[in-house]
Amino acid sequence: MAEVYLRRLSRWQAEQQRDAVADVHVRAYRGAVGEEHRDRQGFLDRLEQHVQHTGFDMVVADTAGTVGCAYGYRVPRSGEWWSDFQGELPADIEELTASGRAFLLAELMVLPAHRRRGIATRMVERLLIRLDADLLVAAPDRPVDGHSGGGGGGGGIGDPRSAAAEAFRAWGWSRFGVLGAHAAPGFAFGVPPGRDTVAREVWIRRPLR
Questions:
Q1: If you average pLDDT over residues 194-203, what whole number do you get?
Q2: Which of 90, 92, 97, 111 is deepest in the core (most CB within 10 A)?
Q3: With respect to CATH, is domain 5-205 assigned 3.40.630.30?
């Protein structure tokens, strides 16, 4: 299989590549048949909002076309992101968020044919290598039965419900809690339109240095 190259994109470049990245999203998550256009447009709408956030950064994987993408930004200081956190939010997490020192991994996807090749691991490492933050946060769709399982590992996250936990543990992240069904929409990767009201697992990694 051809070698995969990683590219870091500026905010402007990410906007220029939005169509290619949206194509990856549709193929990576394989939504309901006949809903491809809706899924694609929903992702484009979220991306349009996300690129405006402070600290937005994106890495894409290419080999004869885009095969993967990871991006993130600073967790909004307003506190809205934690609005439906189930349980008591630790004071230090609240402080890191309010001070703009928490970074959200907002999207991570790899095409099915290119998974289990370490591409997701490489993209996350490239995305975070220059990051000046004290906390990493991600909130993939919560497993349907409340438990994690399945494969995926460092080779890519295709179905967040079955593979995310294994990947995050391999990368040194810790399960932190759950965001309820009414959490602010658009902050979790792998959630197609119409599913913005599902519960999400929160994973964190700290410290970075």
A1: 70
A2: 97
A3: yes
